[in-house]
Amino acid sequence: MAPLTRSRSNDEGISPTFVADYYAQRAGAGLIISEATNISPQAVGYAFTPGIWNEAQVEAWRPIVQAVHDAGGLIFLQLWHTGRISHPDLHGGELPVAPSAIKPQGQAFTKEGMKDHATPRALETEEVAAIVDDYRRAAANAKAAGFDGVEVHSANNYLLEQFVRDSTNQRNDRYGGSIENRLRFPLDAIDAVVDVWGADRVGVRLSPATTQPGETPLDSQVMETYGTYVDELSKRGLLYIHDIEGVTQQTRDAPDGVDFAALRKRFDGAYIANNQYTLDLAEQVLEAGDADLFSMGRPFIANPDLVDRLRIGAPLAEAPKEYWYGGGSVGYSDWPTVGASR
Ligand SMILES: Cc1cc2nc3c(=O)[nH]c(=O)nc-3n(C[C@H](O)[C@H](O)[C@H](O)COP(=O)(O)O)c2cc1C
């Protein structure tokens, strides 16, 4: 199950108890990647999203993880820092942080609804190491909560990807300029997480072809940048890379000519393919040897027993968009399994 932000948490980044039902109902996925979870208050970019930086949040996650385990599933926590994809309203009026002070297109999801993004504040060189420590603490907290592993969110133009790409990273310190410098902070963060978990319990989410949040091109040498990144991830012996092929939810086209198969060949661990997969497409790609595993996102919203449905060819339910982000248990943890009535 691909990570799905569902915005049911409270202002303290704590999920209500029905979140355990929702995840346990989806244990048939085999491996669930949790909704993106903030590693620190500074990481927050969307209202009502969960956190993993304090003890109360660890306590809230523990029964959720236990419920998935009791239902026979595994669950990784997705570690998130949104960087500039945020809003001052989520930071007591302070500016969101980013590698460089470049305003993203589009709007942020705040408690009062959608608001235009602001120009972020560029991080000072000395501040970057503290964010690496935030990743380390969040990883340790995920372990304390009982998760089976963690996925580092380095996709969709959130903070790590903002550092990776030369359009959003225009720094001239040790964290900007050359590919090696642009990868320094993301790899430091991943190394901190690996220190806690061991590489065989850590995956990384990548979106080499994304055009989010709407600016193109996002990198002047995307294959060089991502080829080097994937080589570094492979050297570390990470469990998997989880690639969003194309632009998440929008298209499977790779506008920058990104070659996913070529990137995959550079990585020794597992390759999880994602974005608009159907069973037929997954079977074709598996047959062609272009992926090891597939994740699905949206189909899980209204089909808790998605894998069973795919296995027997049962019809899939559609979740109206009004239920995707925010609200209570309705349209969230009340979708029936096939044959049962709602
Ligand atoms: C409601 C919703 C929330 C999402 N939240 C996340 C998230 O928290 N982290 C992430 O990496 N991707 C997130 N995504 C992207 C999905 O993981 C996935 O890439 C996308 O839905 C495409 O896969 P699909 O066609 O199987 O749905 C989200 C997508 C949707 C629809």
Automatic annotation (TrEMBL):
InterPro entries registered for this protein in UniProt: Aldolase_TIM, OxRdtase_FMN_N, Oye-like
Stored Pfam families: Oxidored_FMN
EC supergroup of this enzyme: oxidoreductase
UniProt entry keywords in alphabetical sequence: Oxidoreductase
Claim: Oxidoreductase is one of the keywords in the record: yes
EC numbers for this chain: 1.-.-.-
Ranges where the NADH:flavin oxidoreductase/NADH oxidase N-terminal domain occurs: 1-314
Cofactor(s) the protein needs: FMN
Record bears the keyword Oxidoreductase: yes
GO cellular component terms listed in the entry, alphabetical order: cytosol
GO molecular function terms attached to this record: FMN binding; oxidoreductase activity, acting on the CH-CH group of donors, NAD or NADP as acceptor
Family label: Belongs to the NADH:flavin oxidoreductase/NADH oxidase family.
Record protein name field: N-ethylmaleimide reductase
Taxonomic source organism: Sphingomonas jinjuensis
